[in-house]
Structures are given as C-alpha cells and as structure tokens.
Specification:
The chain is α/β, with parallel strands linked by helices. It has six helices and nine strands; from the N terminus they run ααββαβαβαββαβββ. The radius of gyration is 16 Å and the shape is globular. The structure holds S-adenosyl-L-homocysteine (SAH). It is found in: Cytoplasm.
Length: about 210
C-alpha cells in the first residue's frame, strides 16, 4: 500500500503528465505522502488525487504539487522560499529538500500543529511554520527567492509580489471555483509579468487580501 512499487507508479504517472525535473521526481518518490493524510486514507496516499485533510481543506494532487514545485524552481537553486497555506504540510515537505529554507504560513492552528509534528517526525529542520494570515505574506523574512500559494485568491495579492526579490517567481492559483488558473508571476524592476500555466482547482485563499 505504501510500497516502493506504488510510489514508483506515481512517479511514472507524473512523468507521463509532463513533469520533467529529475530532482522534483526524486523528492516525490521519497516524501512519505501517507504520513500527511488520515490513517483511514493512507491506502490512497499514492494515488494521483487530492484528498480531504479536515476543516474543508485538501492535500493537493501530487501532479499539481510536482508541477508547482518545478515551475517555482526553474533552473535555479533557491535560497529562501515562502509557502502560503501549509495545510497538511505535504507541499512544504516536498520543497524542503530542494531549497535552503522554507517559511510556511497557515491560518487554521490545528492543521498547522499537525503539520509541525510531521516535520519534526521527518526531521525537516529547514521548515519554519507560522500561524498567520498568508494574504499578508511574512514581511519580516522577505524578500523571498520564491513564493508558492496553495489556496486561490481572486487576483494577484500585491503584498505578496512586494515580498519577492526582483527576478523571483511566485506560483499561485487565481480565480473562483470552476474558473481557476495556475499562474506564474515574475517580479521585474518596474512591476511584474504573468504567465498562465494551466487550469486548476484549489480551495479559496481566505482573509483580507489586497489585489
Ligand atoms: N499545501 C497544502 C494545501 C492545503 S489547502 C497541502 O499540500 O496539503 C490550502 C490551505 O490554505 C488550507 O489549509 C487553508 O486553511 C489555507 N489558507 C487559506 N487561506 C489562507 C490564508 N489567508 N492564510 C494562510 N493560510 C490560508
């Protein structure tokens, strides 16, 4: 159920769907996704599907996690990354081996506490989880070399763009249910550029987000 073969099958599916970055595929093979869902759902952890994590939230589909990670990394070695929407902590755990340091923020305290326990269990010491409203980003540790948002705002949150280092990227879903797209935002000297990646389906980013 959580065997090597099941994980290998997932990695093969990710390849078939177009994930190319070998470092990302290797991390997807290694991170134990079954530890990020309820025991009752553990047998489905290596299916390429989103699963409920309680409080009306979901752990993202592995393909989307891989795709967003790949888009965030590009060809670079990133130093400090911010994630908005820790949820189960799975996306955070995938990022941790690939960058130097990950800050991650979540507004639902019990979800964050559970994610913290998972990071400790897996000895992921370069993850810094914070309980706060991610729409505000985390200005005290900015600028970031990358930002990944795993809940969807209606538009591009200006505060988050301002916390990117010039040249750095933010990967985020934008829009309401049924009409969401994954977008890559690159901070430029004058403002930012956007590129649409593909249609997605995330839970909404809640709180007072200024776009
Ligand atoms: N990356 C997660 C996906 C979780 S779903 C995973 O791999 O499991 C999105 C998460 O974003 C939810 O846990 C939700 O509570 C959180 N969220 C929504 N709005 C938020 C906000 N304004 N600030 C911080 N977290 C938020």
């Amino acid at each position: 159920m959580t065997s090597e073969r099941t994980r290998e099958r997932l990695v093969q599916q990710l390849r078939n769907e177009g994930v190319r970055n070998e470092r990302v595929l290797q991390v997807m093979r290694q991170v134990p996704r079954h530890l990020f869902v309820d025991e009752a759902l553990a047998s489905r952890a290596y299916e390429n599907t989103a699963l409920p994590i309680g409080r009306s939230q979901t752990i993202s589909q592995p393909y989307i996690v891989a795709r967003m990670t790949e888009a965030l990394l590009g060809d670079e070695q990133l130093d400090t990354v911010l994630e908005v929407g820790t949820g189960s902590g799975y996306q955070t755990a995938v990022l941790a081996p690939l960058v130097r340091r990950v800050y991650t923020v979540e507004r639902i305290a019990p979800l964050l506490d559970q994610a913290r326990r998972r990071f400790r269990l897996l000895k992921l010491r370069n993850i810094h989880p914070k309980h706060s409203d991610g729409g505000l980003g985390l200005p005290e540790f900015s600028p970031y070399d990358g930002i990944i948002v795993t809940a969807a705002p209606e538009g591009i949150p200006r505060t988050l763009v301002e916390q990117l280092r010039p040249g750095a990227r933010m990967i985020l879903p934008i829009g309401g249910a049924g009409a969401q797209a994954l977008v890559k935002v690159t901070r430029t000297a004058k403002g930012y550029e956007t590129e649409m990646l593909e249609p997605v389906n995330f839970v909404p980013l809640l709180g007072g987000v200024e776009t």
